[in-house]
Amino acid sequence: MSATVIDGKAFAATVRGKIAAHVARLKSDHGLTPGLAVVLVGEDPASQVYVRAKGKQTTEVGMNSFEHKLPADVSKDELYALIAKLNADPAVHGILVQFPVPDHLNETDIVAQIDPAKDVDGLHVVNAGLLASGQRAMVSCTPLGCLMLLRNQLGSLSGLNAVVIGRSNLVGKPMGQLLLGDSCTVTMAHSRTRDLPDVVRRADIVIAAVGRAKMVTGDWIKPGATIIDVGINRIEKPEGGTRLVGDVDFDSCAKVAGAITPVPGGVGPMTIACLLANTVTALCRANGLDEPEGLTA
Ligand code: NDP
């Protein structure tokens, strides 16, 4: 078998097209423009690249982008004062603080400062709790993107066995909750899981969110399974330089799976698309308007 390669880049472009259409309607029918505020502390080069990409895609779909760059030694009080200002600003519907932050700041405490209704990264405990109890939440962008790819690929997920490898608050846990919400039978695997290959072999859906290059190999995969590779790992190329690979060994897994996401070009592009979608959703919820169809959990 040779797996279908799930083109996350193309699908994300379709999602952005839907968002742009929704944004245009919000402007023409209600005079409202969604606004996303991104806060960057310090000068981490990778974070600067992400923040630039987010700002560009935000304006491309017709939304307002507000970038706040703070020095690496900014005090906790100054950062929290900015977040409080953004919480109160009616032009700002989504707030994202780019992580990692310098060591003197605490990520959990920062997220707790954000109004849960504007927490477009879905990291606030209120949103984690709402998701876990099956209520309307702001859902973390990467798992939301994975869910959209799966629904698009498979239609109904009801009754399928899903194995999520990784249990982080950012990816693994919300992913498990979303799959449960779509009536999958979910197994959460992690570093202490015994005989992981055997656990994965039972899965119709495999989500790998670990951070270990090419860990999942073809002999772990049930024939025809759908594989979503969240991992982003930089490895050395034999000829020199580096390249990005996922947590899944693409070549061996693609021979057995029914469908598989590549790295890059799979989950990654969906993450920013879902950030934009969440910002539109936040505006709609704040104003009692219809939420964009197909762009929420
Ligand atoms: P974390 O480091 O927070 O979590 C990794 C998880 O993997 C942990 O739960 C850990 O288990 C588990 N794990 C580690 N080693 C093993 C192992 N040998 N077997 C099974 N499980 C293991 O990472 P994140 O969830 O934040 O990210 C995961 C990956 O996804 C990273 O490569 C990251 O770069 C990527 N990522 C990609 C995004 C995208 O847009 N494409 C967005 C976010 C992340 P335990 O809890 O027991 O320690």
Could you explain how this protein is built, in words?
It is a single chain. With 297 residues, the chain is an alpha/beta fold. It folds into two domains: 32-115, Rossmann fold, CATH 3.40.50; 141-268, NAD(P)-binding Rossmann-like Domain (Rossmann fold, 3-Layer(aba) Sandwich), CATH 3.40.50.720. Helices cover 40% and strands 16% of the residues. The strands form three sheets. A six-stranded parallel β-sheet has the order 1-11-8-7-5-6. Helix 6 (141-154) crosses helix 10. The radius of gyration is 19 Å and the shape is globular. The structure holds NADPH dihydro-nicotinamide-adenine-dinucleotide phosphate (NDP).
What low-confidence regions span 5 or more consecutive residues with pLDDT below 50?
none
Q: Report the average pLDDT across residues.
A: 97
- The quaternary organization reads as single chain
Proportion of strand residues: 15-25%
- Order of strands across the widest beta sheet? 1-11-8-7-5-6
CATH topology of the largest domain: Rossmann fold
CATH superfamily of the largest domain: NAD(P)-binding Rossmann-like Domain
Strand-pairing-aware structural class: alpha/beta
Evaluate the radius of gyration. 19 Å
- Beta-strand segment tally: 11
**Helix content estimate:** 40-55%
Main sheet overview: 6 strands, parallel
Instruction: Please indicate the count of domains.
Output: 2
Distance N to C terminus:
31 Å
List of distinct ligands in this structure: NADPH dihydro-nicotinamide-adenine-dinucleotide phosphate
Question: What is the N-to-C order of secondary-structure elements (H for helix, E for strand)?
Answer: EHEHEHEHHHEHEHEEEEHEH
What is the CATH class name of the largest domain?
Answer: Alpha Beta
Q: How many helical elements?
A: 10
**What is the overall shape?**
globular
